[in-house]
Amino acid sequence: MLAVVTGASKGIGRLLVERLIKKGYQVVGIARSREALEELKARFGDSFEYVVQDLAKENAEKDVKEALEDLGVNRVDLLINNAGFAVKKPLLEHNEEDLQKLFRVLAISPVLMTKELLPFMHRGGKVVMVISGVAFVRTPEIPAYGAAKAALHYLSLTLSEELREKGIKVIRVYPRQVATPFWDKTPKGAIPPEQVADAIMRAIEKEKEEVFVPGYIKVAKYLPRWPALTYRFEF
């Protein structure tokens, strides 16, 4: 079985690479850092290949597909759209580049990556969308990030319906803030990335469509207003 993992160089993505290889997957990691990817290659040998790519760039997903073909990949059993970043400042301080990059990496690229790799996928394949609990709340500290994750939530629901006809399952994952290098300063209450990686692995094995980490995050989805409430991060 072969898995493609975006954002594979650190945090949740790196942990997923380790866990998938232990489960017997051949893994191709996608990330910007060649050095970090080469470290994984040195560690895992033939079980790991990589593609250096910045998903903020136009046509990045097409380039990934071509790179996979160059590696001899002709089948993808699992795609994990995990790559992400945040900009921590008020919305009116975001410039056009900030907004374009955030929405491209967090919302547009996961859909385009799925579309580009779809010819490699068959019935029984799985696509994991690492979204966020902030899709259901307003986050003044990272407003554009929250908006992009809300967009990915919406897009993933539609994608799930469209791919169901092809026998491909979409798994949506909604963690709360995670203690990874994603943050310049880790917010209070952040959960360990291992908790999220383990939840994703269980979801893949049990073929769940929706996972909240921790489980109580799901409450926000069913509150009567959207966004359900304002959530302020403490640093």
In a few lines, what is going on in this structure?
This protein is of the alpha/beta class and 235 residues long. It has helices at 11-22, 34-44, 60-70, 96-117, 143-164, 193-206, 219-222; strands at 2-6, 26-31, 48-52, 78-81, 126-130, 169-175, 210-213.
Describe the structure.
By secondary structure, the protein is of the alpha/beta class. The protein has seven helices and seven strands, in the order βαβαβαβαβαβαβα. The chain has helices at 11-22, 34-44, 60-70, 96-117, 143-164, 193-206, 219-222, and strands at residues 2-6, 26-31, 48-52, 78-81, 126-130, 169-175, 210-213. It has a seven-stranded parallel β-sheet with strand order 3-2-1-4-5-6-7, sandwiched between helices. α2 (34-44) links the parallel β2 and β3 (48-52). α1 packs across α6 and α4 packs parallel to α5 (143-164). The longest helix is centred in the middle third of the chain and has 22 residues, at 96-117. The protein is globular, with a radius of gyration of 17 Å. The mean pLDDT is 94.
Helix- and strand-based class? alpha/beta
Q: Give the distance, in angstroms, between the N- and C-terminal Cα atoms.
A: 41 Å
Give, in spatial order, the strands making up the sheet with the most strands: 3-2-1-4-5-6-7
**Major sheet description:** 7 strands, parallel
Helix tally? 7
* Shape summary: globular
SSE layout and pairing:
Blueprint: E1 2-6, H1 11-22, E2 26-31, H2 34-44, E3 48-52, H3 60-70, E4 78-81, H4 96-117, E5 126-130, H5 143-164, E6 169-175, H6 193-206, E7 210-213, H7 219-222
Parallel strand pairs: 1-2, 1-4, 2-3, 4-5, 5-6, 6-7
